[in-house]
Amino acid sequence: MAMVPKVSPLVLYAFLFLSLKVAIGEIPSSSPFSFIKPLQGSKKGDEVKGLYNLKKYLKRFGYIDDLPYNSTSPEANYFSDQLESAVRTYQTNFNLSPTGVLDFDTVSLMMKPRCGVPDIINGTNWIRRRLVPHYSFIPGNPKWPDDKDVLSYAWAYGTPYEFVRTTKMAFQQWSGWTRLSFNDGTDYRSADLKFHLFAGEHGDGQAFDGPGGIIAHSFEPTEGICHFDSEEEWAEVGVYPYGVDIQSVVTHEIGHLLGLGHSGVPTAVMFPAIGYGETKRLLDNDDIQGIRALYP
Ligand SMILES: [Zn+2]
Ligand SMILES: [Zn+2]
């Protein structure tokens, strides 16, 4: 009598594991920031295809106030005084050598996946005026009111469990260093801090851009809204070697939800960029000083 061939549970498990590994933790071969790579070495006076996109990038993150022409203008791809000054401000913000030239270090940092919150908001964010980069506040210092010691948070219904679990750990970091405490026992609609995964255009005028590029963004207090780009290669780094570490990015975005801006300190959680396979789950001294200054 012939036996019905059975798939061993172990084989099935291995298959599931492998297919999951393909789905998460891979580095995308191109990103919305790939256009920056061929610009390496460009400097003032050069005319290089793609410089217009770099101007848009620098405007997007607050380094150029006004770009009064479009991509077909004769000056679109010209490395102007304005562009040199913007590159220099970017380099100063991140403690790179402020040459105004698109050198390797500058291009490498610009290409990393990053948060969508601008580094300089309304031209008034003061990290640009510091000699030594450190933490910043959102302009106007918006924060949660003094009588609000407990903030509730929730992910939208149906969010994968990896996000929910790592978010709990991320909040423990911030509650450990402030008078604030955080409560996950609420439903999404009534939560003070709402987390949601979205792809592309999602109704707030800040469309996500697919794998790489912008990975998440948050709104200042007391909006309490945080969005993650669902098309990123999200991973729990440690379980998987590559991908963008969920807990590190949640920790960063909580900083914005509480009122912190970006820091130029590379080890700070509030540094805007993160590499694939990199983790930054513990608050740096710079983050702690920032949050304590905001919530004494
Ligand atoms: Zn950010
Ligand atoms: Zn959004």
Side by side, the strands of the main sheet go 1-5-6-4-2-3
Chemical compounds bound to the protein: zinc ion
Can you give the helix content as a percent range? 25-40%
Spans where pLDDT lies below 50 across 5 or more residues: 1-25
CATH class category label of the largest domain:
Alpha Beta
CATH superfamily of the largest domain: Collagenase (Catalytic Domain)
Structural class: alpha/beta
DSSP strand count? 8
Largest sheet: 6 strands, mixed
Distance between the termini: 78 Å
Look up the CATH topology of the largest domain.
Collagenase (Catalytic Domain)
DSSP helical segment count? 7
Question: SSE order, as H and E?
Answer: HHHHEEHEEEEEEHH
The count of domains is: 2
Note the beta-strand portion.
5-15%
Second rung of CATH, namely the architecture of the largest domain: 3-Layer(aba) Sandwich
Rg, nearest Å: 21 Å
Instruction: Summarize model confidence as the mean pLDDT.
Output: 89
What shape does the CA trace take?
globular
How is this structure best summarized?
With 296 residues, the protein is of the alpha/beta class.
List keywords for this structure.
single chain; 296 residues; alpha/beta; Muramoyl-pentapeptide Carboxypeptidase, domain 1; Collagenase (Catalytic Domain); 6-stranded mixed sheet; two-stranded parallel ribbon; 28% helix; globular; disordered N terminus; binds zinc ion
